[in-house]
Design goal:
Low-confidence stretches: none
Structural class: alpha/beta
Helix content: 25-40%
Order of helices and strands: EEEHEHEHEHEHEHEHHEH
Shape: globular
Radius of gyration: 18 Å
Strand order of the largest sheet: 3-4-5-6-7-8-9-10
Largest sheet: 8 strands, parallel, barrel
Number of strands: 10
Bound molecules: phosphoenolpyruvate, manganese (II) ion
Distance between the termini: 54 Å
Length: about 280
C-alpha cells in the first residue's frame, strides 16, 4: 500500500499555527516582536566604522526604530567585495547598543562563529543564502538566542517553514520569519517582494513574520512604498537598511535609506499601522 504523505501542517508540528493559536512573541532585550506594536529593525547593511554606525543608530532610534541591524559578517557574492569587520564590527554593535538601548540583530554565517556572534548579538540573523544550511539551522537551534530566519531567495513557503521547524526541533522556538523577496524573471528590481507570504505565513504558523523591503526591492526609493504595503498586509515588523551616507556605503547603498527618508517612511508606516490597528 502506498504510504500516505503527511499533510503540510502535520509536517510542522512545532511551528504550525495550531500548536499555539495565540501566536508567539519573541523577546530580545527590552523589546518584542509579535505584539500589536510593530518591530522596526533598522541600520546599515554592514557595520563599516564607529562613526557610520553610531550616526546611523542614533538617527534610527530618534525616528522610532526598536532594533538596530548591521552585518559584521557579510555574505558577499564576490570574494573581493567588503566582507565585514567581523569581531571588530560586533564590538561596534555592542557600543551602539550601549548608547542607544536598541537590541542588536546581526548575521551569523557559519556555525564556527556562533559562540562569538551570540556573545554580542541579541538576535541571530540567518541569511537568505543560509536558509538551506541545515547544519547551521541545527546549531542555532541549540542556542538560547532569538533567531531571525530569512527566506531563501528561491525557497518555497513550505521549505521556509520546514527550515523554521528544524530550528525549533533543535530546541529553540524563538524564531522570527522574514520575507525578503524571491528571484523571479523580473530584472527591474533586485528581487520580487512576495507579500503573499505574509497572510500565508500568519495563517500557517504562530511565529512572528516581518518583511525586508530593502532587499525585496533593491531600490531605496521603493522601500517606503513596500514598507507600507507590508504593514497593510499584516506583518509584525520591518527590517530596513539605513545608512548615514548611502552614497558612500560599502554594501547595498543603492537600497539604503538616508536618515531623512527613513524618518518619512516611519511617518507613513505609522499611519498605515493605525489603519490596521497596529502601532509603530
Ligand atoms: C542582509 O540583511 O544584509 C542580507 C544579507 O540579507 P539577505 O540574507 O536577505 O540577502
Ligand atoms: Mn544588505
Amino acid at each position: 500500500m502506498m504510504q500516505q504523505t503527511l499533510s503540510f501542517l502535520e509536517a510542522i508540528p512545532l511551528v504550525s499555527r495550531q500548536a499555539r493559536p495565540d501566536g508567539t512573541v519573541v523577546r530580545a532585550g527590552p523589546n518584542e516582536v509579535g505584539r500589536s506594536r510593530l518591530a522596526i529593525i533598522a541600520g546599515p547593511c554592514a557595520v563599516e566604522s564607529e562613526e557610520q554606525l553610531l550616526r546611523t543608530a542614533r538617527a534610527v532610534k530618534e525616528s522610532g526604530a526598536t532594533f538596530l541591524r548591521g552585518g559584521a559578517y557579510k555574505p558577499r557574492t564576490s570574494p573581493y567585495a567588503f566582507q565585514g569587520l567581523r569581531e571588530e564590527g560586533l564590538k561596534l554593535l555592542a557600543l551602539a547598543r550601549e548608547e542607544t538601548g536598541l537590541p542588536v540583530v546581526t548575521e551569523v554565517m557559519d556555525a564556527r562563529h556562533l559562540d562569538l556572534v551570540s556573545s554580542y548579538a541579541d538576535v541571530l540573523q540567518v541569511g537568505s543564502r543560509n536558509m538551506h544550511n541545515f547544519s547551521l539551522l541545527d546549531e542555532v537551534g541549540r542556542f538560547d538566542r532569538p533567531v531571525l530566519l530569512k527566506r531563501g531567495m528561491s525557497a518555497t513557503l513550505e521549505e521556509f517553514l520546514l527550515a523554521a521547524e528544524r530550528i525549533a526541533a533543535s530546541g529553540n522556538a524563538q524564531i522570527i520569519l522574514c520575507e525578503r523577496g524571491i528571484r523571479t524573471f523580473e530584472a527591474a528590481t533586485r528581487n520580487t517582494l512576495d507579500l503573499n507570504a505574509v497572510p500565508f505565513l500568519k495563517r500557517s504558523t504562530h511565529l512572528p513574520v516581518i518583511v525586508d523591503p530593502s532587499h525585496g526591492t533593491g531600490h531605496w526609493w521603493m522601500v517606503r512604498h513596500m514598507a507600507r504595503a507590508a504593514v497593510a498586509a499584516g506583518c509584525d515588523g520591518l527590517i530596513v537598511e539605513v545608512h548615514a551616507q548611502p552614497e558612500a556605503a560599502l554594501s547595498d547603498g543603492y537600497q539604503s535609506l538616508n536618515p531623512e527618508s527613513f524618518d518619512e517612511m516611519m511617518r507613513e508606516v505609522r499611519a498605515v499601522a493605525l489603519a490596521v490597528e497596529r502601532l509603530a
